[in-house]
TrEMBL record:
A biological-process GO annotation: exocytosis
Protein name in the entry: RP3A protein
Species this chain originates from: Pomatostomus ruficeps (Chestnut-crowned babbler)
UniProt keyword Transcription present: no
SUPFAM superfamilies: C2 domain (Calcium/lipid-binding domain, CaLB)
GO molecular function: metal ion binding
Superkingdom of source: Eukaryota
Gene name per UniProt: Rph3a
Signal peptide: none
An annotated GO cellular component: postsynaptic membrane
Amino acid sequence: QSNKLRTKTLRNTRNPVWNETLVYHGITDEDMQRKTLRRGARGISVCDEDKFGHNEFIGETRVALKKLKANQKKNFNICLERVIPVDRGGDVEERGKILVSLMYSTQQGGLIVGIVRCVHLAAMDANGYSDPFVKLWLKPDMGKKAKHKTQIKKKTLNPEFNEEFFYDIKHSDLAKKSLDISVWDYDIGKSNDYIGGCQLGITAKGERLKHWYECLKNKDKKIERWHTLQNE
């Protein structure tokens, strides 16, 4: 279940009045403190639908949910923007989450990376979805063997991949490496759109560092963690 809701389409008007109520379920107090309402993950965007059902983007805006009080209705009068800048606080926009498993296999002598699934990806296509796939890059300097990618999942913001990739590498060399994970929206005939990414490794911070460290410390144990994708 994606966290995108939409109103019905109103025809032939520049002054639409919807009077519709859209309900988001499963929003926690923590979400209310942190999340802004925005296009893609949590957003308000206005689109023009043509007779073939294609959506042309008109404009978007975001509302800080922490401005809202419980059980109190609030009206906003907000201008739409074509492109939304990053929050003034400088924090990086979230583009969804990815579930990754790591295991160093002593038997196979290498790192096994599992790309399990993503949730709440940002929508990159006019139909309100994306066609996501994931790229892996173990860096630095491993040449062609450093890169892997998953299959493409069509028209979804919550793709399930369940794919595993193997890196032939000595355990002692892993501490010097970073694993670059990026999620892309596949587009036929033009360049793919970047949805978001994260980098695991010793130079990472927080959960990304912890996950890498746990993998190094616990050989032959599969460790799964969710990571936030960022539009960096």
